[in-house]
């Protein structure tokens, strides 16, 4: 017992020392990043350009100015003030900020809370700017002005798979809109993963790996995320040289714009995933062939990728080469690099010493390429594989690098915050993240109460090491209400009251106050946007699932049923979804709210149609809510059909089956009423990016796989 107490005391002292070191380490990083930012004149011009694209009629109504953090006590901030004398052709509102992102965030804040405007993705209704008064008539802020400080330094954005679920086919025109959206939402730490295959092509060819070998290594455009993570290789390929060149050029445009706006992009680093040809060129290297990720039926042409052990000296050599090649292509644009070697891929042993050495090697590869490198790691593994990552293993990994050289994304903090159960990640800086979306699924869903309070609870908790908030959805362009609230939490020092916020949101989104719609949003807050059961696979409506229920399970023994359920659980775990175990033999959808209040919310939306018939944001929400209601109705109709099947009631089975098929037809007709829900827009973007008939065929064909 005395020995245990002594070890506990040592741990407490270590955590106290770590907590004392972290603020200074992060402050030093922030100071270094500040010195690398674009000149004030460049950032001011970039902010002005965002205004010009968003609101060209008011390009002279605002004056922008970069200011020092000293103005806000050392914090990042924006300040909004009135001009005393203004006219139609002169500036009316002055917005100052510590970077262009803060200036544009200030612009967005003013347009929202003084002009009643709204900005969302084009696919979710776009912008509502009709409520903004004409130039010369903009509303004044209070006399002394307004100062809003960032509650935490960073607002992170994206997931390592968002590239495949959402923006694989984007051109510069679409990327420009997204970066504008990021700036308006206050994002200053975005993931920048485009074109890494072009960098890897150069690195691996320097190691004498041929293009034929690389064709079998890189995934096709639509599957790049899973090839990068080592889940598969070659599937959907090969990539053309035009793709490499096009993506590299696009990435340079993306990085340039991010830097102009004062953002700090996060670049990829080496996680150990290598082509099979490396085993022949370096036969003594410690390279392991992984098992099947359950995506391509165990076919060796595509499954079972190769992982170079971080303890092998070749790992550091390749990791250094990759970082330096990025520096050569892009310049010194960041010090922050993402690496997720152990994401859904556990180390071969749980020995803390071994894990610590692996972590040190991963970081060493980064630091060899960039002496100021910071390792940004997704913390998903600590939840998805919690059986392996116990406190000793977590500490071994988190403390394997110098304090302040690692930042963890608490990826699923909106549902399962790890910071609470890990002593603030054992003193390691972390970013409170909302995951929210799995698989790019289109489903109305959210936990607004958790978003409006969780980041504040984490930040003010004892010995907090929280340094940011983040949005880590797997797919974007859905549930705009969730992302607008989450973005605001970067600037909120206190908790938000969702009821009041939603009333304001409704008025901004549609450009006017409509009682029925406000009542509908109050219902949605307590139903659809109040999912507290912790289940992640919320979009498993039968109407969007493969018909995978086996009626033969009816006659299974109890043991056979248990084995069948275990197979399903194993399958879902490999696909990064979390399911509930149930005692029923019938297939299960996920329903976390009573349906009739939501049907009533839809009725309220329909009643308001005459007041909002010209609103694109209203149109999108109406279609989305109707889709949601019909999908949940279809779930019950499907179960009624299955029950009738079990009872050998042919008449009832036929009736419910016809209803289900009719609902599919109804939903299809409904979604065809809004281009934002059409598959064709996705296919067209793929074809638009093709440079020749061969790519046109490949891009179009891949999307049907």
Describe the structure.
With 705 residues, this protein is an alpha/beta fold. Helices cover 47% and strands 9% of the residues. The chain is built from 26 helices and 15 strands. The strands form 3 sheets. An 8-stranded parallel beta sheet has the order 6-5-15-14-13-12-11-7. Strands 1-3-2-4 form a 4-stranded mixed beta sheet. Strand 11 (336-338), helix 12 (352-369) and strand 12 (374-378) form a beta-alpha-beta unit. Residues 15-20, 568-577 and 701-705 have low confidence and may be disordered.
Helical proportion? Answer: 40-55%
Most strands sheet: 8 strands, parallel
- What is the CA-CA span between the terminal residues? 61 Å
**What's the β-strand tally?**
15
Oligomeric grouping of the chains: single chain
Indicate the low-confidence ranges by residue numbers: 15-20, 568-577, 701-705
Round the mean pLDDT to the nearest integer and report it.
90
Strand portion, in percent? 5-15%
């Amino acid at each position: 017992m005395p020995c245990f107490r002594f070890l506990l005391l040592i741990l407490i002292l270590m955590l106290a020392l770590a907590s004392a070191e972290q603020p200074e380490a992060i402050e030093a990083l922030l100071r270094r990043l500040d010195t690398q930012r674009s000149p004030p004149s460049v950032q001011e011009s970039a902010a002005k350009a965002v205004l010009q694209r968003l609101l060209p009629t008011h390009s002279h109504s605002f004056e922008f100015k970069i200011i020092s953090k000293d103005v806000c006590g050392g914090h990042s901030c924006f300040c909004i003030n009135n001009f005393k004398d203004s006219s139609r052709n002169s500036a009316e509102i002055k917005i100052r900020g510590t970077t262009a992102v803060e200036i544009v965030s200030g612009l967005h804040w003013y347009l929202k809370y003084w002009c009643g405007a709204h900005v969302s993705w084009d696919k979710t209704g776009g912008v509502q700017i009709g409520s903004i008064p004409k130039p010369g008539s903009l509303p004044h802020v209070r006399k002394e002005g307004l100062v809003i400080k960032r509650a935490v330094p960073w607002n992170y954005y994206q997931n390592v798979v968002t590239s495949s679920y959402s923006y694989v086919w984007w051109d510069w025109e679409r990327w420009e809109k997204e970066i504008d959206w990021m700036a308006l939402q206050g994002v200053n730490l975005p993931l920048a993963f485009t074109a890494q295959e072009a960098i890897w092509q150069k690195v691996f060819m320097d190691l004498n790996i041929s293009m034929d070998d690389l064709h079998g290594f890189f995934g096709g455009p639509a599957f790049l995320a899973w090839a990068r993570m080592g889940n598969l290789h070659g599937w959907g390929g090969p990539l053309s040289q035009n793709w490499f060149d096009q993506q590299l050029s696009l990435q340079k445009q993306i990085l340039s714009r991010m830097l102009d706006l004062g953002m700090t992009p996060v670049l990829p680093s080496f996680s150990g995933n290598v082509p099979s040809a490396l085993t022949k060129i370096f036969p003594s290297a410690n390279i392991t062939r992984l098992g099947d990720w359950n995506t391509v039926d165990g076919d060796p042409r595509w499954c079972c990728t190769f992982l170079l052990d971080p303890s092998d000296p070749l790992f550091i050599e390749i990791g250094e080469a990759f970082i330096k090649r990025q520096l050569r292509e892009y310049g010194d644009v960041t010090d922050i690099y993402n690496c997720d070697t152990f994401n859904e891929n556990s180390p071969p042993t749980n020995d803390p010493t071994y894990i610590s050495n692996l972590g040190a090697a991963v970081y060493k590869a980064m630091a060899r390429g960039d002496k100021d490198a910071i390792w940004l790691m997704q913390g998903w593994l600590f939840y998805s594989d919690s059986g392996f990552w116990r406190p000793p293993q977590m500490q071994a990994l988190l403390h394997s690098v110098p304090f302040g050289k690692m930042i963890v994304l608490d990826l699923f903090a909106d549902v399962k915050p790890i910071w609470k159960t890990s002593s603030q990640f054992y003193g390691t800086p972390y970013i409170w993240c909302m995951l929210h979306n799995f698989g790019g699924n289109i489903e109305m869903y959210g936990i607004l109460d958790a978003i409006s309070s969780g980041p504040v609870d984490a930040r003010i908790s004892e010995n907090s090491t929280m340094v940011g908030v983040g949005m880590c959805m797997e797919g974007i362009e859905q549930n705009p209400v969730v992302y607008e609230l989450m973005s605001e939490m970067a600037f909120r020092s206190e908790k938000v009251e969702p009821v009041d916020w939603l009333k304001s949101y409704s008025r901004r989104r549609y450009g006017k106050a409509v009682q029925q719609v406000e009542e509908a949003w109050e219902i949605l807050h307590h139903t659809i946007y109040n999912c507290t059961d912790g289940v992640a696979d919320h979009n498993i409506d039968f109407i969007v699932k493969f018909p995978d229920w086996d009626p033969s399970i009816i006659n299974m023994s109890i043991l056979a049923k248990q084995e069948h359920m275990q197979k399903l659980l194993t399958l879902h775990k490999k696909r990064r979804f979390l399911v509930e175990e149930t005692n029923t033999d019938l297939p299960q959808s996920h329903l976390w709210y009573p349906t009739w209040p939501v049907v009533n919310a839809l009725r309220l939306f329909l009643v308001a149609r005459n007041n909002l018939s010209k609103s694109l944001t209203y149109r999108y929400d109406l279609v989305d809510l109707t889709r949601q209601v019909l999908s949940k109705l279809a779930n019950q109709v499907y179960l009624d059909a299955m029950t009738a099947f079990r009872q050998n009631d042919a008449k009832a089975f036929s009736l419910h089956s016809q209803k289900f098929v009719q609902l599919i037809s109804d939903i299809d007709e409904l979604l065809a009423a809004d281009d934002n829900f059409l598959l064709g827009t996705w296919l067209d973007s793929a074809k638009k990016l093709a440079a020749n008939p061969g790519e046109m065929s490949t891009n179009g064909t891949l999307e049907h796989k």
